[in-house]
Design a protein that fits this description.
Blueprint (H helix, E strand, L loop, with lengths): L3 H6 L5 H4 L10 H8 L1 E6 L7 H12 L6 E6 L2 E5 L3 H9 L3 E3 L2 E7 L13 E9 L8 H8 L4 E5 L11 E9 L7 E6 L2 E9 L26 H18 L18 H22 L23 H15 L4 E2 L10 E2 L8 H7 L14 E8 L6 H14 L3 E5 L8 H7 L4 E5 L8 E5 L4 E8 L2 E7 L6 E7 L7 H11 L7 E6 L9 E2 L6 H13 L3 E2 L9 E2 L9 E2 L2 E5 L1 H4 L4 E6 L10 E6 L18
Parallel strand pairs: 13-14, 19-20
Antiparallel strand pairs: 1-3, 1-5, 2-3, 4-5, 6-8, 6-10, 7-8, 9-10, 11-17, 12-15, 13-27, 14-16, 15-16, 17-18, 18-19, 20-25, 21-24, 22-25, 23-24, 26-27
Protein name: DUF4283 domain-containing protein
Pfam family, one: zf-CCHC_4
GO molecular function: catalytic activity
Length: about 625
């Protein structure tokens, strides 16, 4: 459809209207200096963002000499005026910037160019190119590879032109209306291999088409609005849950807290989420440097050891390094509290599903998803904490539940296992008034405990039709002086190269100071030890969806601090087992740590969207 301007061109103008008025370029010196300190910015969001909200939020993120002034020139389009050119250049060089998980596209200010002719369809992003041979980590090779994605702005190399490291960083001007590139197939001296990409500060991406911004024709994926898709899935999932038969009366006191009225509790939970929604707006604006969901290497990894050899290697390393760890037999006996519960025939869920009850919907419900819940609850003695855990399990139906800092003994968990309707339960009892771990699982997976300590539970996970892999439920030392023990433990737990490995939990450490807000900066050497463990284990952060920061001290004054201490990381071998993974940061009011919900979409099963070969998750 032609725009209104195009239609106007076909109209006949009156003589006075057709007469051209020539404007003089008599710009004053002050105005020229103002233009030099100004950039144009646009937020691609379905909501209207006010200049006050955007200005106050970005002032905290940019941390420049004086807050910039935002002037709205169009809906969600602003002229951003800085106090001086130095502040402008600092913000300009730090692109891209995110607001509410949406990219803030910046363009140079051109005072004599009509605003409608300014294109906001591109922005600079840093791309990390992985799996490159050392000799290919150069400026020339970076420009060659990056040039296939977009216009190369610069390559992060040393003075001699080399950029040796775990990856090569290339800044590229990306077309936001095109699907984000996952990687490139390269050929070096006759060897063909896959080089996956990861992106720094990745914004929200469309589920359907893989684009950050939709063009004038809308989404090309054919599935409609991205947010509508997510909301529809959630609504249909809730409908399906309501059709399932519910069995068993509520239990009374279970030793870990008592039940509250379920309806009132859910109303309170909903109120807490709504009240924290506005507060979380600022928290979601942090830099999203972790590349987690974009890394999907397609290279086939050569097998170097069998699973049995890998298990023996792990046990041997643990025995040499940590004498206090205990080995658990495949039958699940021995150790600090193992509950082995056989499968029950005629389980209520299976009976309900056997009756053929299902929801018919125009939108497909994502199938074949395994979920892993991880939460540092800071004690299960509080009935409200137990109720929060029950609500999360009831709503999300995770296959495995890992809880840290239980501060409870083994005898207290049998009633909790029954209440959560879990088939298996493994407990590491608390020592004194602190610590304590528990791992619960249902019949969807086969869990085989390998070993454990006060800081971890190592378990083989086997699903029907999927390759066996190692899950490490991890709790890092809260004492900084003992943090090296945590890293030594992780190094000793690493399986053989061909075994998939995933770690979830509270690491009690951050990778960079961008994962911390408020308080004093974390010492670089302390974070470097964590980064070294990640590199040595070939572990990649799986990113997050929702709030970036998972812990806060809840102070109401200038000492307020929040950090990203909880996360999920995995090796490429593990990521190649599954079709898609993402980490959801949830909300709770009974602990200073926010729970994580790891979603794992299996490759096999019904194809719920045959129109796409893959999809992205970036919100």
């Amino acid at each position: 459809m032609d725009s209104l301007e195009e239609k106007w061109k076909g109209l006949r103008l009156l003589e006075d209207e057709n007469a051209s008025i020539e404007l003089d370029e008599d710009t004053t010196t002050e105005l020229i200096y103002k233009e030099q300190r100004t950039v144009l910015g646009k937020i691609f969001s379905s909501r209207i963002i006010s200049k006050e909200v955007l200005g106050s939020t970005m002032a905290k993120v940019w941390k420049i000499s004086k807050a910039a002034k935002f002037t709205e020139v169009c809906p969600n389009t602003f002229a951003i005026i800085f106090e001086n050119v130095a502040d402008k250049m600092r913000v300009w060089e730090g692109r891209p910037w995110l607001f509410d998980n949406q990219v803030l596209v910046m363009k140079e200010f051109e005072g004599y160019k009509p605003l409608h002719s300014v294109s906001f369809d591109s922005e600079c992003f840093w791309i990390r190119i992985h799996n490159l041979p050392i000799s290919c980590m150069t400026k020339v090779k970076g420009e060659q590879i990056g040039g296939t994605v977009g216009k190369v702005e610069r390559v992060d190399v040393q003075e001699d032109g080399s950029g040796w490291g775990n990856f090569l960083r290339v800044q590229v001007l990306l077309d936001l209306t095109k699907p984000v590139a996952r990687g490139r197939t390269l050929t070096v001296r006759g060897n063909r291999f896959w080089a996956p990409f990861s992106y720094e500060k990745l914004p929200k991406i469309c589920f359907s088409c893989g684009c950050m911004v939709h063009g004038v024709n809308g989404c090309s994926g054919g599935q409609g609005n991205n947010e509508e898709m997510e909301d529809k899935w959630k609504r249909e999932s809730e409908k399906k849950e309501n059709l399932e038969t519910r069995a068993g009366a509520k239990e009374g006191k279970n030793g870990l807290g008592s039940d509250e009225d379920e309806g009132q509790t859910r109303k309170k939970e909903k109120g807490r989420e709504e009240s924290e929604g506005g507060k979380d707006l600022e928290e979601e604006n942090g830099d999203r440097e972790d590349e987690g969901m974009m890394r999907r290497g397609e290279e086939r990894w050569d097998k170097q050891a069998t699973e049995e050899e890998s298990e023996n290697m792990v046990d041997k390393a643990l025995e040499e390094t940590y004498g206090q760890m205990v080995e658990v037999s495949s039958e699940g006996k021995g150790g600090i509290g193992v509950e082995d519960h056989p499968k029950k025939k005629g389980e209520w869920k299976r009976r309900a599903r056997a009756k053929g009850k299902q929801v018919v919907s125009d939108y497909p419900i994502p199938p074949n998803i395994m979920k892993i819940l991880s939460w540092n609850c800071r004690g299960l003695g509080n009935p409200r904490t137990v109720q929060d855990l029950y609500n999360m399990v009831e709503k999300n139906k995770p296959s495995l539940v890992f809880v840290m800092e239980t501060k409870s003994l083994k005898k207290s968990f049998d009633s909790l296992r029954r209440r959560l309707q879990c088939e298996g339960c493994f407990v590491v009892e608390a020592v004194g008034k602190g610590g304590g771990l528990v791992l619960l699982w249902n019949s969807d997976v086969r869990a085989e405990i390998v070993n454990y300590s006060q800081s971890h539970i190592n378990v083989w996970i086997e699903e029907e039709g999927e390759k066996k892999w190692l899950l490490t439920c991890f709790y890092g030392q809260p004492d900084t002086n003992k943090r090296k023990e945590s890293w030594s433990l992780l190094n000793s737990l690493k399986p053989a190269a061909n075994i998939g490995w995933c770690i979830v939990g509270d690491f009690n450490e951050i990778l960079t100071n961008d994962e911390k807000w408020g308080g004093r900066a974390r010492p670089e050497g302390q974070m470097e030890l964590f980064r070294e463990v990640m590199n040595e284990g070939n572990l990649y952060d799986l990113g997050w969806k929702g709030d970036k920061f998972t812990w806060s001290n809840s102070h109401g004054d200038d000492t307020f601090t929040k950090e990203r201490l909880d996360r999920a990381v995995a090796t490429p071998e593990w990521m190649n087992i599954y079709r898609e993974t993402w980490v959801e940061v949830m909300v709770t009011s009974t602990s200073d740590h926010k729970p994580l919900l790891l979603h794992v979409l299996k490759k096999k099963g019904r194809n719920w969207n045959s129109q796409r070969a893959f999809k992205y998750e970036a919100s």
